[in-house]
Specification:
By secondary structure, the chain is α/β, with parallel strands linked by helices. It contains 12 helices and 7 strands. The structure holds nicotinamide-adenine-dinucleotide.
Length: 280
């Protein structure tokens, strides 16, 4: 513990259960001296686990559907009331695709679901930023983060319409980051995280194979939810004040790799010995 967030006030979206990346961020933010409110959809609250986190972190829960502007306005206003002033950090840890959930493949999308994917997983980030900006709810040098995935840049089998949502999400960080930085010195970034076993992560087709593959490909191995939380804390702290409009890969090196020895060794096991010789 370094007291990196001492005196800072925040809003953390997306803690569903103890596997959630947002859950780990909340735990670490509390350890580092922050006070914050927690938010999730009323549906997610019914699972009830967030109450346990709130109690442990001494945080109030304010329900909000992140696609709903009234909910967001209420969330920011109430959070400033409860925390006693403007906000210093916001974590947007929100993603959902009905096409993925219902098994609709990318060449057979339901377009109503597609629009919902974009609204929930990308536009909600713009809505959070625009609401905060209009209410002037974030302090100078405040830090706003959303979580992304490398499928925004590269095609990964099975990630479906979430890839498009992540590309928009990262673009919003750049576009809004310019305006918010210029006018209010607020920074806006996305963190592109390794595949991680969470509720949202488990919805991705072939997640176990993907996690094994990216781990073999990454010189440092996959980053887990706790690693991600540590990085989020540094991004909320004053130690990273001049980082804005970035998408930062937090993936053990995966995004810069083409092929690794560990992945190739495993791949070669699927061939007979003669075929492996031919490959060399
Ligand atoms: N798990 C992974 O492999 C992985 C990898 C890279 C990025 N991410 C991203 O990390 C973020 C957090 O996901 P996670 O893996 O911790 O899974 P998670 O399922 O624990 O979290 C997703 C959260 O989104 C919330 N949510 C859904 N619709 C919402 C809405 N309309 N309004 C407000 N909240 C809503 C859910 O209730 C849930 O709490 C997501 O953006 C996800 O895409 C995850």
């Amino acid at each position: 513990m370094y007291n990196l967030l001492k005196g800072k006030k925040g809003i953390i979206f997306g803690a569903l259960n103890s596997k959630s990346i947002a859950w780990k961020v909340a735990e670490k933010a509390f350890e580092e001296g922050a006070t914050f409110t927690l938010s999730n959809t009323p549906v997610a609250m019914r699972f009830g686990e967030i109450n346990e986190l709130a109690e442990r972190c001494n945080a109030e829960i304010i329900p909000a559907d992140a696609t709903n502007l009234n909910d967001l306005e209420n969330l920011f206003t109430k959070s400033m009331d409860i925390l006693g002033g403007k906000i210093d950090f916001v974590l947007h840890s929100i993603g959902m695709s009905l096409n993925v959930r219902k098994g609709r493949l990318y060449d057979n999308l339901d377009y109503n679901y597609f629009l919902k994917t974009i609204d929930i997983s990308a536009l909600s980030f713009h809505k959070v930023l625009q609401t905060a900006r209009k209410l002037d709810a974030i302090n100078e040098w405040g830090s706003v983060l959303a979580l992304s995935y490398v499928a925004a840049q590269r095609t990964l089998y099975g990630y479906n319409d979430m890839a498009d949502a992540k590309a928009i999400l990262e673009s919003i960080a750049r576009s809004f980051g310019y305006i918010y930085g210029r006018d209010k010195k607020v920074r806006v970034n996305t963190i592109s995280q390794s595949p991680t076993r969470t509720t949202a992560g488990s919805g991705v087709k072939g997640i176990d194979g993907l996690i094994d593959f990216t781990d073999r490909m990454s010189p440092l191995g996959n980053a887990d939810a706790e690693d991600c939380a540590n990085f989020c804390i540094t991004m909320f702290s004053d130690l990273t004040k001049k980082i804005t409009m970035q998408n930062i890969f937090h993936d053990g090196g995966f995004s810069s790799m083409g092929m690794s020895l560990r992945a190739m060794t495993q791949y070669n096991k699927s061939f007979g010995e003669d075929e492996v010789m031919n490959l060399e």
